[in-house]
Write a structure and sequence with these properties.
Blueprint (H helix, E strand, L loop, with lengths): L4 H15 L6 E5 L11 E7 L17 E7 L2 E7 L10 H14 L3 E10 L9 E9 L27 H14 L3 E8 L8 H10 L3 E3 L3 H9 L3 E11 L10 H10 L1 H14 L1
Parallel strand pairs: 1-4, 1-5, 5-9, 6-7, 7-8
Antiparallel strand pairs: 2-3, 3-4, 5-8, 6-9
Length: about 270
Amino acid sequence: MSYEYIQYKESADYITSKLGPFKPEILIILGSGLGFLGDEVEQPIYIPYGEIPHFKTSTAPEHIGRFVCGMLCGKKVAVMQGRLHCYEGYSMQDVSYPIRVMRLVGADKVVVTNAAGCVNTEWKVGDIMLINDHIRLFGFGPLNGANIPEFGPRFNDMTDVYSKEYRSMAHEEADKIGVTLRDGVYMYFPGPSYETPAEVRAARILGADAVGMSTVPEMTVAAHAGMKSIGLALMTNMAAGVTGCSLSEGEVARTAAMTAESFSKLLRAILTRM
C-alpha cells in the first residue's frame, strides 16, 4: 500500500493531540526481546498503534505494539515497544510508516535495536553489534512509488545511514562502562523463516556480520527524511549452519533476558550523549 502525505499528517496529528505540549526528540525502536526498555521511560504516555489513524498493529511475539512517550536519560523520547515486519504481511511502506509519522511529530533522531543472527564466526551469542552499514537484496524498498517531497528527495544519499558521529560516541561510552561493542554490517532477510545455512554463507561472503528481519526498511526511510540514526543489534543466536543446531524463538528471548542489564546500560549511556 502506498501512502500520501495527508495520511502521515493525520497520524501525527492524533499522536500530538495525545502528547499535549510534550514533543519527542528521539525515536527508539525496540526489537524482539528488548521491549523491557520501554518500561524504563519516566512519566510515560502510552499510545497503542491500533488507536492511531492509518497505523498497522504488531503481531510478532512479545511485541506489545504501542508508543511509550516520556523522559529517558534526560531526553524526550518516543519508544516503539514492538515494531512491524514484512513477514506479518505488511508492505515495506507499512513497516516504515511510523518513522515518517514521528518525524512529523518532532523526532529528528533515531535509535534502532534488533535481535539478530550472528554470521561472524569470531563473535558469540550475547555480543552487541553497532551497525555500520546494511545490505538489502530483496524486492522493492520502502521508497518505491511516488516520492513525497515533504520528507526528502527522489534520490537520497545512503552513505551515512548510521551516523559516524554517533558510532564513534557509542564506542567511547562502551569502553567507559566495560561493554564489548562489535562493529559490523547487518543484512536484511524478509522472514519469517530463519535463513538457510546456504543463505548465511552467502551473507558472509557478501560482507555481512549479522542477519535479521527488520531495521533496514525503517532506516532507509529515516535516511530519506534526514534523521540522524544509530543501530544496535543483539546477537541472540548463531545464524543457521554456524553451529549445526536448530534455531528457535525461545533462544532469542533467553539471550535478550540474559543481556538485558548490559544492553540497557549501553543504550542509556548512548542516549545521554545524543
